[in-house]
Write a structure and sequence with these properties.
This protein has about 400 residues and is α/β, with parallel strands linked by helices. It contains 14 helices and 9 strands.
């Protein structure tokens, strides 16, 4: 052991003699401490013997090393190059002014009509006399809590003061009708879809490098045209019905879809019901101001000999309609990444849409031709047996069979 220790001391002494001429006192202390730490137990004694440095000096070096290991770095706090904002208080204000003025739509903003990127902002700042790079602008924007963001669909226009009350009204009337055993349905039209080999949003599994090839452009096929899926969602039973229309999306088409739902799906579930509750948007073919909608509902009421209750969601709140997120959203997921090549494809993809909560859907093609712009005269409107509710009768009304 003694011979081994002497050998180590000799090796360290040679290393120290070779480098000591270029080391100051602190560097010698740190080097010796580093070697002592590597050697472990007895290391300080060996380094003392090899370098003639005092024990206290070596121990001080070890303390400095340990202190540095716990700190973030060797540079003292506040050391190094100062931030740009430290020496230029106006920089942050100018950056914020450039970014915010374009957001607020200031007509005199230099970036009002150009891309608001870090490159453009840095260029404009240099025009204002700031020496700054694109990377520095990027870092400063990040520190200022700015980030790249896309547009978000959120604005609904001016909200009606009784919006929430109407929501509560609809919720209460649905519960009351369900307790009575009456059907409560949500209706709406899904967006029109091109039929043919067209790109459909979403992805689907295929062999790598073998995607389904579709048309370069989305111009409708003159032979296949477009389809308008109109849906009926049974809120209580979690069942859906969709008529795939090949003609115009009119109120006549909407009511005929409800008629088909009743005869092919609803009647078996609600044979003894006295009323049918429909919840719908305020716009489109089933809008509360559409005369044809009410006229066709009267015909359906007479045909079924049942009162039809209608409650419309306030303007700009279509996303609250149950059919949107309980039926249409799942249909969209089911056919994502699949070209709607034929009418049969559309019907099959809708009919095979299922969820873990047990959603079931039936779908057919409605081959009828519906005339756009069909007008209902005042004399025909007077024949409609309608009773408006005391609370927003323009949104809530009942149409009963004519006697």
């Amino acid at each position: 052991m003694i011979k081994e220790a002497q050998k180590i001391i000799g090796t360290i002494r040679k290393k120290f003699e070779q480098i000591s001429y270029c080391l100051n006192e602190k560097a010698k202390r740190i080097w010796a401490a580093s070697e002592a730490k590597i050697l472990g137990h007895g290391g300080i004694k060996i380094l003392h013997a090899a370098t003639d440095l005092d024990y206290k000096t070596i121990k001080k070096g070890i303390s400095e090393i340990q202190k540095n290991e716990k700190s973030e770095g060797i540079r003292k706090k506040g050391g190094g190059r100062k931030k740009l904002t430290y020496s230029n208080n106006q920089l942050l204000k100018d950056i914020e002014e450039l970014v915010e003025s374009t957001t607020r739509g200031a007509p005199d903003s230099p970036l009002k009509w150009s891309s608001k990127s870090s490159y453009k902002i840095s260029e404009e700042l240099r025009n204002h006399g700031h020496e700054i790079s694109q990377k520095s602008v990027y870092n400063l924007l990040k520190e200022m809590n700015y980030s790249l963001q896309s547009n978000r669909k959120k604005l609904e226009g001016k909200s009606h003061p009784d919006r929430n009350e109407q929501f509560e009204y609809i919720n209460d009337i649905i519960k009351k009708n369900q307790k009575k055993g009456n059907p409560t349905i949500s209706v709406d039209t899904k967006k029109k879809e091109n039929v043919g080999e067209f790109k459909n949003a979403g992805v689907e599994y295929h062999k790598k490098g073998e995607p389904i090839e579709v048309q370069m452009h989305d111009f409708p096929d003159k032979c296949k045209g477009k389809v308008s899926p109109y849906g009926v969602y049974d809120i209580g039973k979690n069942k859906g019905w969709v008529s795939v229309g090949i003609s115009s999306d009119t109120a006549e088409f909407a009511v005929n879809t409800i008629r088909n739902w009743w005869y092919l799906m609803g009647e078996a579930e609600y044979a003894n019901c006295k009323e049918i509750l429909i919840t719908a948007d305020c716009g489109g073919s089933n809008g509360n101001r559409v005369r044809l909608w009410k006229y066709e509902l009267q015909k359906l009421s007479n045909e079924l000999q049942k009162t039809i209750c209608v409650s419309h969601f306030p303007p700009g709140t279509s996303k609250w309609n149950k059919i949107e997120h309980r039926l249409f959203s799942y249909i969209t997921k089911n056919w994502r990444g699949r070209p709607l090549e034929t009418l049969e494809t559309v019907v099959q993809l809708i009919s095979n849409t299922k969820t873990k909560t047990g959603l079931k859907i039936k779908a057919i093609v409605d081959l009828n031709k519906y005339e756009k712009g069909k007008k209902i005269e005042n004399k025909d409107m007077k024949k409609i047996n309608i009773k408006n509710d005391n609370f927003h009768g323009e949104w809530n009304y009942k149409i009963s069979p004519n006697k």
